[in-house]
Amino acid sequence: MMNITPVILCGGSGTRLWPLSRADYPKQFIKLEDNITLFQKTINRIKLIAEKNNRINKIIILTNESHRFLIIEQLKNIKISVKIQIILEPCSLNTAPALTLAANASPNSTLMVFPSDQYIENDKTFVDCIQNSINEIKDKLIFVFGVKPKSAEDSYGYILYKGSKKIKSVTGFIEKPKVEVIKKILADKKCFWNMGIFVLNAKTWLDAIRITNESIYENVTKSWKKNSPDNLFIRPSNSDYSKASSKSIDYAVIEKAISLGIELKAVEVKTNWSDIGQHKALERLYEKNKKNNIFLGDVIEEGTNNTTVFGSDRHVSLLGVENLIVIDTKDSLLVVNKKSSSSMRELIKKINKKRRELLLEHSVVHRPWGTYEIILQHKNCKIKKIIVNPNSQLSYQSHKYRSEHWIILKGVATILKEGKEFKLCADESTYISSGQKHMLMNNQKQILEIIEVQTGKKLSEKDIIRYQDIYGRLKEDKK
């Protein structure tokens, strides 16, 4: 029997959930419920499946360069015995090229394909449904999974089916139809929302994508054959991968599967589900009070109904409002009218033109060595709070345009400046002028906390010249 390979698609940016989700720290990595991220919940579901199958030999995670250390960080707290292979997509080309990479990486396997950013309420029900499909899988057969629609959502794909058995025959597949079409589909009652989860043999996918999209098949296959391992990561060839066309799994193959002679079977998952693709979907994760309000954070209200608040550090007061979603982060405040027909995509386009940096990073930025938080920023001055994890270090670097002042708040800093090493404790400080080579290290078992004050004509995160780096970022600098 073939091995089973779970494939986690983890390259999305989740900008529709801004400002909670940012390109460099998207929704799958945010702790939304139970202090566990959606990515970690996905891994935990795979652990449950692995307990029932000894044929799972590895898990493939497909992500990108900017998220690779987030993946490592989030895997630290999860004990799993199965080997994990992290493939770094050279560029973002949607899910069909990503799955083609996975199929090339595990060509003789049955693939279980999971998005990393979904909320699924009942893990046991879900795992049973996946197990049923594994027991039945064969070549030229693809299992898709769906839930009964609760509304006419035009952001989902729809699975049309016939039959009343647990495993149903798919008669059609429509990706993100218009509302008028959805209403006709719902009236027939023989449809599911498509969860974007698939079980299929790698050969079935490779044979299909070779026919439907030669650009993806040829370029991604070449890219994989030229891959280069880099410690925990595998990097396919960028020059070949970037030539492939950008298509989703649904558009590239699933919608055309029946015409290709591939049998599509649908399994209903009887659970609450959401891809958390919009702010209203967040409400499914939390219990509402008697006024249909959801308040997270320091919130006081009077005369407020049907309103959701995600607060951060500041207090939020509400008076006489209703039908709102309020998301308050350290650097951005979003207020959404639930009844508005306006598109979040259009707002994101405007933000991208005027304040693009707000779409990329949170005020708290995660790095492989720890985090930094921007406390204050002006044209010629920036103040950061930097936390360096135990036994971690930044790169040996210099800056062309800025100087830095470091003040130690907590822990013991080991500093390398122009080849000379020294230590600083709490309440001590040092100055690094522009052009000086320097490195900040935490060789202790406790966290290191410092304040960094940057001054200069140009204050940019790109103003870094690296000379040594244990995280492999010298390669990125040369690109």
Describe this structure in words.
The protein is α+β, with helices and mostly antiparallel strands and about 475 residues long. It has 3 domains: about 5-275, Spore Coat Polysaccharide Biosynthesis Protein SpsA, Chain A (Alpha-Beta Complex), CATH 3.90.550; about 285-355, no CATH class; about 365-475, Jelly Rolls, CATH 2.60.120. Strands 22-23-24-32-27-30 form a 6-stranded antiparallel sheet, with no helix packed on it. Helix 1 (about 40-50) crosses helix 4. It is globular.
General shape? globular
Strand order within the widest beta sheet: 22-23-24-32-27-30
Number of DSSP E strands: 33
Q: How many separate domains make up the residues?
A: 3
Structural class of the helices, strands and pairings?
alpha+beta
| Major sheet summary line | 6 strands, antiparallel
What is the CA–CA distance across the termini? Answer: 43 Å
CATH superfamily of the largest domain: Spore Coat Polysaccharide Biosynthesis Protein SpsA, Chain A
Specify the CATH architecture of the largest domain: Alpha-Beta Complex
User: What is the strand content?
Assistant: 35-45%
Quaternary organisation: single chain
- Unreliable stretches, pLDDT < 50, 5 or more residues? none
Mean pLDDT: 90
What is the CA-based Rg, rounded?
Answer: 24 Å
